[in-house]
User: Which sequence fits this backbone?
C-alpha cells in the first residue's frame, strides 16, 4: 500500500508517543536511582497507560490500512484532498530495523545477564548482537526527540511487546528488564529451530 496522509499522521503520532515514553522512562529511571520510589512508581504507571494508548493507536492504524487498502480508494482520496500536507522529518517506512528483529537479541541478552539486568546493560549487549543488522537510520536520533536514538527506542517498544506476550516479566523493578519462564522456553525453541 502506498502511504497516504492519514497513515503518515498515524506514524507521526506514534513517533510522538514514543518520544513521550522515552521521557517518562528517563524520569522514572532517575527517580529509581535516587531512591524516590513513589515517583518511579508513578512513572511506571504513566508508562503502562501510554503503552496501552500506543497499542490502541496501532490498532486504529491497522484498521485504517485495511479499510483503505485498495489503490482506487487511495487515488480517490488524493483527488479529493484540497490541501497537501508534508511529513516533515518522517523516516520513510522500511528504513529502520523492524521491532521483531530485536526479540531474540533482547531475550538472549537477558539470559546471558542472569535473567534480569538494568536497561542500559541489556541494550549494550543488544547493540553488540545486532552490530551487523543495525543500519545508519537505526543509529540516528528520532526527529521528535533528538536525545533518543532510533534503535534504542525500537528495542524499548519491543520490550513492551515481549511483556504483553508474557516473554518478559511485567512486575520487574523500574529500570530493570527480566525474562520470564515463558521467554526462556521460547528462546530455547527458537535456538532449536535455527
Assistant:
Amino acid at each position: 500500500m502506498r502511504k497516504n496522509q492519514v497513515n503518515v499522521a498515524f506514524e507521526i503520532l506514534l513517533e510522538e508517543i514514543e518520544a513521550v515514553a522515552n521521557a517518562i522512562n528517563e524520569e522514572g529511571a532517575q527517580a529509581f536511582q535516587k531512591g524516590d520510589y513513589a515517583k518511579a512508581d508513578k512513572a511506571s504507571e504513566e508508562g503502562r497507560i501510554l503503552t496501552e494508548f500506543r497499542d490502541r493507536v496501532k490498532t486504529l492504524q491497522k484498521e485504517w490500512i485495511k479499510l483503505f487498502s485498495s489503490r482506487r480508494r487511495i487515488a480517490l482520496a488524493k483527488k479529493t484532498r484540497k490541501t497537501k500536507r508534508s511529513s516533515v522529518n518522517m523516516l520513510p517506512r522500511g528504513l529502520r530495523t523492524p521491532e521483531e528483529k530485536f526479540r531474540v537479541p533482547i531475550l538472549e541478552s537477558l539470559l546471558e545477564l542472569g535473567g534480569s539486568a538494568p536497561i542500559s546493560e541489556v541494550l549494550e549487549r543488544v547493540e553488540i548482537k545486532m552490530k551487523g543488522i543495525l543500519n545508519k537510520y537505526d543509529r540516528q536520533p528520532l526527529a521528535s526527540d533528538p536525545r533518543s536514538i532510533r534503535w534504542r527506542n525500537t528495542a524499548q517498544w519491543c520490550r513492551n511487546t515481549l511483556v504483553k506476550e508474557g516473554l518478559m516479566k511485567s512486575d520487574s523493578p523500574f529500570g530493570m528488564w527480566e525474562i520470564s519462564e515463558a521467554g526462556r522456553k521460547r528462546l530455547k525453541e527458537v535456538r532449536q529451530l535455527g
Observations:
- The chain has two domains: 5-80, 99-193.
- The longest strand covers residues 116-118.
- The chain has seven helices and two strands.
- Residues 37-67 form the longest helix (31 residues).
